[in-house]
User: Which sequence fits this backbone?
């Protein structure tokens, strides 16, 4: 498994753990540019949507780098 | 806006159509010190309710002498880079598409408003507030992560990473990524590049869909 696959696995794990609904019962969504995505949208399109994969990967990578800097 | 309305007079387009003609007329009549845009943005355009540009490269100079605060996607990259050259005092913007999640709307709202609230209330320039605002966002991201809201925290960090303020006397904008733009900038300077980009905009129009 290369680094990209490892990161993909990590991202998918975070996504699977993300509740589908917010505490007020509304669907959880990620707004990213002109896209407004539910958890299902992301998971269902993960394999086929290269741009989506890259963007969500970048989000998680950004958090990881931020945490490294905070140590 | 409640947090600043006792400090400055606000002409709010929230409950009426924010379109180019009204906004430019208001700028001409009121000559405001601040211009705030919370709506769709793209690299070279602040979009109006009618899905047409309010501000683009051709009329960026209408914001001359103002503090500009943008809560939109990507306008910091294109318009921001040319703003100071067109007389804008400072331009607060995001240099890529903004992200947020619906499980932390309050936190995102706080962070997106932080710069203007602090600047207006303390009488400071945005450039003097931006690093504190960024830190505020990072702290919120840490809090969200501790709550298990990993994607919200990730989006917050991303937004803080792409926040930029251009200001008079500040460092020049980073070189464009495109080699042609870099070459044009080297040959003709930022004003020459602005002219070329504006001509491209006139010929090809502006694309709204990509970055909102």
Assistant:
């Amino acid at each position: 498994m290369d680094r990209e696959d490892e990161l993909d696995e990590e991202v998918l794990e975070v996504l699977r753990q993300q509740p589908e609904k917010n505490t007020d019962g509304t669907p959880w969504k990620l707004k990213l540019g002109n896209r407004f995505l539910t958890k299902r949208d992301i998971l269902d399109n993960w394999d086929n949507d290269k741009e989506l994969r890259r963007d969500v990967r970048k989000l998680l990578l950004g958090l990881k780098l931020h945490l490294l800097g905070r140590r | 806006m409640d947090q600043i309305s006792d400090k400055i007079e606000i002409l709010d387009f929230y409950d009426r159509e924010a379109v180019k003609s009204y906004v430019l007329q208001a700028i001409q009549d009121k000559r405001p010190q601040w211009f705030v845009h919370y709506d769709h943005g793209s690299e070279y355009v602040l979009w109006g309710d009618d899905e047409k540009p309010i501000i683009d490269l051709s009329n960026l100079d209408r914001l001359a002498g103002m503090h500009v605060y943008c809560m939109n996607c990507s306008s910091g990259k294109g318009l921001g880079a040319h703003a100071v050259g067109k007389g804008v005092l400072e331009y607060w913007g995001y240099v890529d598409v903004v992200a947020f999640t619906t499980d932390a709307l309050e936190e995102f709202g706080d962070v997106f408003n932080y710069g203007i609230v602090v600047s207006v209330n303390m009488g400071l320039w945005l450039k003097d507030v931006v690093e504190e605002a960024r830190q505020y966002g990072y702290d919120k991201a840490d809090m969200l992560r501790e709550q298990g809201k990993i994607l919200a925290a990730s989006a917050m960090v991303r937004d803080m990473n792409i926040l930029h303020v251009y200001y008079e006397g500040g460092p020049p904008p980073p070189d464009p990524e495109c080699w042609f733009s870099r070459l044009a900038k080297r040959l003709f300077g930022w004003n020459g590049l602005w002219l070329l980009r504006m001509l491209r905009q006139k010929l090809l129009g502006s694309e709204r869909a990509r970055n909102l």
